[in-house]
Design a protein that fits this description.
The structure holds two protein chains of two kinds. Chain A is an all-alpha fold. Chain A has one domain: Orthogonal Bundle (MetI-like fold), CATH 1.10.3720. Chain A is about 85% helix and about 0% strand. Chain A contains eight helices and no strands. The longest helix of chain A has about 45 residues, at about 1-45. Chain A is flat. Chain B has a six-stranded mixed sheet with strand order 6-7-8-3-9-10, sandwiched between helices. A four-stranded antiparallel sheet of chain B has the order 2-1-4-5, covered by helices on one side. In chain B, helix 6 (about 175-190) links the parallel strand 7 and strand 8 (about 190-195). In chain B, helix 3 runs parallel beside helix 5 and helix 5 (about 145-155) runs parallel beside helix 6 (about 175-190). Classes of the chains: A mainly alpha, B alpha/beta. The interface of A and B includes residues 116, 123 and 136 of A.
């Protein structure tokens, strides 16, 4: 315990900046991952067979290979594909976003699929346009199916950002590596990082649960 | 002669290898009340659902006021606004209040001002005895109340035809009557109505004409009295002797 407090006293700034890195990396991954996930889900559920096939392959590949491999792949491959001064952080962020989008698109698709078919038919039968059917009838109901699974995905994303430490991108696991290397106090610094992760995810899950309850009030 | 509002020409519908409709040709006159009876799986519901294109016919045509609605150029949403439909499972929108269920489509698709749409919705709710439920969510309603809501939701779009797909089949017995009463009242208003039903007494009482659909074709049609007292086709006879 003494060692932990000693470490905190001396290196709290390192952990704080790591926490900051984890937070913004997670936030950006979640935001862009959701946006991309929605686009992928639309492709998957749309009428075009080609788009459906492409998104199918996209999702299968991303779900069937390790995240770490995907990070390496983008980190090495992206600068070759698009010659540009990519920073490590940019490469890792893009890889994380792509990975998250596959899972999020599946969550969205499943959530929409779980809405009773009769709701689509009723909306059609009163002459609602496709856009209104989606925005007024289907999505408000689907969101209740989507949110719990999306909440899990967000927490997975937060934990997943720890892999960025492999590339020494500034986040919590990287802070642990820094402190551990400087002090040789592996276990105490690991404990600090672990507690911070736990607290972040605990708060996140509680917040999302609150939001979920708000949204389910209507039924 | 009253004019023809709906006409089908050799309507065929396949689901994969299964042929559900094998060529249905019929005419519905404006203001007519037509009951569709027949054994389960015979194609009654599919026929009804082809009329507002919830199912796309595999072959054949549907004409509404002499306009071919299977024409790809037709704005299908606008067409459906003229054809109300009531489902077996109510399909009211659980995420909206009773009032919002009714005003949704008129406000969004017909651009009716909100106050006007709400005033009309309230009038409709009074007509079916649900005015005190206007601000409730559907989960608080009984099956019969949900179905009455579904009926006025469709009526709010001022349809020219109402399609009822087994509107009382999912109801508890004590709620069947309240829904049938609403439909009966509607038949008196001059609305064109097609109703798929297993309520033979009701069909006999309200319809101008009865279609018997079996194995994907209309095997017999006629006045309710003729169908129910002296059916000509053996399949009609067999069916009626089982349900009556």
């Amino acid at each position: 315990m003494d060692k932990i407090f000693g470490l905190l006293e001396k290196y709290y700034m390192v952990f704080l900046s790591g926490l900051w890195g984890t937070l913004w990396l997670s936030a950006l991954t979640v935001i862009f991952g959701t946006v991309l996930g929605i686009i992928v889900a639309m492709g998957r559920m749309g009428k075009s067979k080609i788009l459906k096939a492409i998104t199918d392959v996209y999702i299968e590949i991303l779900r069937g290979t390790p995240v770490l491999l995907q990070l390496y792949f983008v980190w090495i491959g992206l600068p070759k594909l698009i010659p540009f001064e990519w920073t490590d952080t940019q490469c890792i962020l893009i890889a994380l976003v792509i990975n998250a989008s596959a899972y999020i698109s599946e969550i969205i698709r499943a959530g929409i699929g779980a809405v009773d078919k009769g709701q689509w038919e009723a909306a059609k039968s009163i002459g609602l346009s496709k856009v209104h059917t989606m925005t007024r009838v289907i999505m408000p109901q689907a969101i209740k199916n989507i949110l719990p699974a999306l909440c899990n995905e967000f927490i997975t994303t937060v934990k997943g950002t720890s892999l960025a430490s492999v590339f020494f991108v500034g986040e919590l696991m990287t802070s642990y590596k820094t402190v551990a290397a400087a002090t040789f106090l592996q276990l105490p610094s690991l404990t600090i990082a672990g507690v911070i992760y736990f607290v972040v995810n605990f708060v996140l899950s509680r917040l999302l649960r609150l939001l979920e309850r708000r949204l389910t009030v209507s039924d | 002669m009253t004019d023809i509002i709906l006409r089908t020409e050799n309507l065929v519908k396949n689901f994969g290898d299964l042929q559900v409709l094998r060529g249905i040709s019929t005419e519905i006159r404006r203001g007519e009340v037509v009951s569709i009876i027949g054994p389960s799986g015979g194609g009654k519901s599919t026929f009804l659902r082809c009329l507002n294109l919830l199912e796309e016919p595999t072959e054949g045509k549907v004409f509404f006021n002499d306009q071919d609605i299977t024409d790809k150029k037709l704005n299908i949403c606008e067409y459906r606004q003229k054809i109300g439909m009531v489902f077996q499972n109510f399909n009211v929108f659980p995420n909206m209040t009773v009032l919002e269920n009714i005003t949704l489509a008129p406000i969004l698709e017909k651009k009716v001002p909100k106050e006007e749409a709400e005033a009309e919705a309230m009038a409709l709710l009074r007509r079916v005895g649900l005015e005190d439920k206007a601000n409730e969510y559907p989960r608080k309603l009984s099956g019969g109340q949900k179905q009455r809501l579904a009926i006025v939701r469709a009526l709010a779009m001022h349809p020219e035809v109402m399609l009822f797909d087994e509107p009382t089949s999912a109801l508890d017995p004590e709620m069947v009557k309240e829904v049938l009463n609403v439909i009966t009242e509607l038949t008196r208003s001059g609305m064109t109505i097609l109703i798929v039903t297993h309520e033979m007494g009701f069909a006999r009482e309200v319809s101008d004409r009865v279609l018997f659909i079996c194995d994907g074709v209309i095997t017999e049609e006629g006045s309710p009295d003729q169908i129910f007292t002296s059916p000509r086709h053996p399949s009609t006879n067999r069916f009626l002797s089982m349900v009556l």
